[in-house]
Amino acid sequence: MMNSWRMSEPPPERTAAILALLDRLTALINRAGARDNHRGNRYRVDVFGSVSWGGETTKSSDLDLVIVDTHLLRGYIPSLWKVPDGAPSLGNSRGMRTPQNDNVPPVYDMYWLANKLRNAGGTYSSVEPITKANTPIVKFKTGALECDINCNDMGGWYNSLLIEAYARVSPYVFRPMVYALKKWAAAHDLNDYAARNKKAATMSSYCLTLMAIAYLQKIGALPNLQQGVEVPVVCEPSNPRQKDAIWISWGREQGQLAHIWFRQDPPAGWKTKHPHLTAAQAVFGFFRYYSGIRGETDVFDPQKQMVSIVNGGIIPRPRPQNTLQRERQDFRKRMHPDTPREEILRLMAEFDYDIDSQERYMGTGAKGIVPRKWDEKRLIVQDPFIWEKVSGRAGCAG
């Protein structure tokens, strides 16, 4: 396993090609966006995803790129939302060329960006803007590289930084462990997150990576790098003064709040409980723990537990799958058969409101308050930054 992992490391020429591409794109975008970029250095193109932290499983993994806007480091802030807080929805707003705000420069328009790439002297081919998505992107090819690029949607970039920080703590266990899990998932068609192969969507590599971190946290082989994160009493996504926060998802009417604080190094005094743990042992332990083998006492139970690295690995699940659905059905059945339809709708809306109104006090979920939409999930793998979101698809879907 270790030899296979080492052989998957990208050759120096691929790394050099990626760095050269970042420089070329940075120069191109700064020149093209000169109207809002008087000093010529407002934008910087960077790479994120598994390539950025050494989690590739092949030497030809696709590249995820982001245009970092140094004038809007907090991203899709509330003052730039397509629909202000409290205003009515625009309906089918996904795919709009830019947020409806004069303060947003044209580089955020995926059609504008695609045209700049097409007109770059033949350097970029197969250029295709994808606007109807939470994170609008442009897909393109250059040489042997296939790339997706977005503008200042920094969620994936921060996710990669967090995973990289965990990889630094345990580079020769965590990285080959994730490599092995991703190869296993690919061999069994379990990582087709977008259902591109016309099968039922399964889970993303990111979801598997979070499960690996959580397992290593549980056994004491990794720390909680988000220990000490400041948790607001009430979640207010439209409050622009929140500490350590960014807003993502430029394709939505309103941005998603992400709490991005984490430690670069383990908390003071932390030491691994397994200094001699090997990657092979970690992979074996991962499968033993999550497979729920009968007769084993210390195994993961998705009906009673959930994966949450922001809370240190594995925490109690507030209620088993479909509990709220059954309670809702029971509430409806207890109504008198002659109850008018309007009254039924009103009572059911009150039932839902009583549950939904608690979500503002969720925090990281450690207090036992979680979103109602999690009720239907077989497996909950919580996003470490967007606390009300679960990662991946199928059992992990959000």
Task: Please describe the topology of this protein.
Blueprint: H1 2-7, H2 12-32, E1 43-48, H3 50-53, E2 63-69, H4 110-118, E3 125-130, E4 137-142, E5 145-151, H5 155-169, H6 171-187, H7 205-218, E6 245-248, E7 256-259, H8 279-291, E8 305-308, E9 313-316, H9 323-333, H10 341-356
Parallel strand pairs: 2-5
Antiparallel strand pairs: 1-2, 3-4, 4-5, 6-7, 8-9
Helix pairs in contact: 5-6, 6-7, 6-8
Question: What would you note in describing this structure?
Answer:
- By secondary structure, the protein is of the alpha+beta class.
- It has two domains: 2-152, Beta Polymerase, domain 2 (2-Layer Sandwich), CATH 3.30.460; 157-396, Poly(a)-polymerase, middle domain, CATH 1.10.1410.
- 32% of the residues lie in helices and 12% in strands.
- It is built from ten helices and nine strands.
- The strands form three sheets. The protein has a five-stranded mixed β-sheet, with helices on both faces. It has a two-stranded antiparallel ribbon with strand order 6-7. Strands 8-9 form a two-stranded antiparallel sheet.
- Strand 8 (305-308) and strand 9 form a beta hairpin.
- Mean pLDDT is 88; it is low at 394-398.
- Residues 2-167 form the Poly(A) RNA polymerase mitochondrial-like central palm domain.
- One of its GO terms (biological process) is RNA 3'-end processing.
- Pfam families: MTPAP-like_central.
- It comes from Vanrija humicola (Yeast).
- GO terms for molecular function: nucleotidyltransferase activity.
